[in-house]
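Technical appendix A lists one of the benchmark inputs used to test multi-chain prediction within the project. The record comprises two sequence entries:
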Amino acid sequence: MPDQPTTAARIDDLYRTDSRIILATLIRLLGDFDRAEEALQDAFVAAAEQWPKAGVPRNPRAWLISAGRFKTIDRLRRRARFDAALGELAMRLDEAGPDPAESGDEIVDDRLRLIFTCCHPALPPDAQVAMTLRELCGLTTEEIARAFMTSPSTIAQRIVRAKAKIRDARIPYEVPARERLPERLEVVLRVVYLVFTEGYAASAGPTLVRADLSGEAIRLGRLLVELLPDPETEGLLALMLLQESRRLARTDPNGELVLLPDQDRSRWDRALIDEGATRAERATSGLTVGPYGIQAAIAAVHATAPSTDATDWGRIVGLYDRLAIADPSPVVELNRAVAIAMHDGPGAGLALIDELMENGQLDDHHLAHSARADLLLRLDRPAEARAAYERALDLVKTDPERRFLEGRIAELDRPRGAVRELDVRPG
Amino acid sequence: MKYLCIVYIDPEIFGALSPQGLAALDEASLAFDEELHQTGQLILAQALQPISTATTIRVRDGRLSATDGPFAETTEHLGGFMYVEARDLNEAIEIAARSPIAPFGSIEIRPVLDLARTVQERRERAAPAPGA
């Protein structure tokens, strides 16, 4: 059987490229996540058995959808001996028609249905993330657990509970109505960005960069731009690409954190910057501009600047002014203050940070204290700078950031006083 | 599918209502109930007397205790409920979101548990149907 290896390779390829698309349609046809996953596996097993002998069908995706559906109806009929309700269900599924809708629109709608169901606001945020990675990205429970440094059973339980809520509270498998789309899209974008930031800068623990999750998030971002063109969808993808472009430069060979001013800009990924900057431009050129678009525009100014000194800080301050209106938060205010320090001098920035700290919102934020320390150092006030670094050290959560701050304190005897814009993302 | 939409009133927002505002809200609520009734979505809607009229009872070891007020001290007070028939959770969310009372607090949406069916299914599992 000379063509067997190629058929097997073809099936592997199809699984990689099409299994999520097929799953999305099977969930609609079978009305249940677990049944659809079972059907998906059955369909690929059937393909592995039959295609090497009978040849690859002309429309493999339609064949797989159809096979999955029939296998499920078969299985339900067999179980109907023990549970009459399953027999009725098998009949209903069979009557729904042998020809699963295969038009392009319906496929796109199924993928959107899956996205909006995994990111339904009635599911808790950690379940939205787990469902998205499992159902939409096809990651295994173990892979998700590893990425989030938790146990597979914790992730499995989140997914089981989410599916139970989808079933028991009857969360529908549908694309939201037009008037609900903006708020529902906001949840989807938040989930994707959460996956990205989790991969980009671990919130706790030993590894600073977790590549897999960032890659998955960018893939999801591309899918959303394709399926749901919108300035904020474009803005989120641009933001992720621009942050991703600095990945290699963000840590040194020992895994230590390197901040924006000290990064070797020749190690930034030019292709990602070009694409990110173009998309950021597109995301902010329309009438409505949202927080992701503005953040992408800020990231684009940094990414296209030859050095920290040659950065257009005036433009960055202006963008932070807009961001503070579009998405007000203490972290945005902090970043704005640091940009103002770069534009107007450390004294102006320090006054703003002190003002922010007075109302208490940033007091437990390590980046606020370390930014304050940087500015104090530039103002030649080393004793106060040391106290601020030490306060930041008390609050910091990741090991590389902790080592970075320890290094700063150790260096205080021979200060070099480079202030930096914080490499943080609001929200 | 049946959902109970439990309305919790935020006393700060609600208390800021003028008498005219309150009268308008009452009118709008009645009209909304009527509208849901017409579309067949409403099974029952009921507003409740203020929390100062509440009594909580507990029976432990056969002894009854009755106390003034609600069981838990919360900032939001149970103000009423809508029992609705909806196709799915999204439709129930739409109904609750359209309610004139929605801006004055929060609404918890709970799918009902069909106890009769649960009991029936448990019995069937314990004793399989003849012929199986």
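Residues 2-126 of chain B form a domain with the Alpha-Beta Plaits fold (CATH 3.30.70.1060). The first strand of chain B starts at residue 2 and ends at 9. Comparable benchmark entries are summarised in Table A2.
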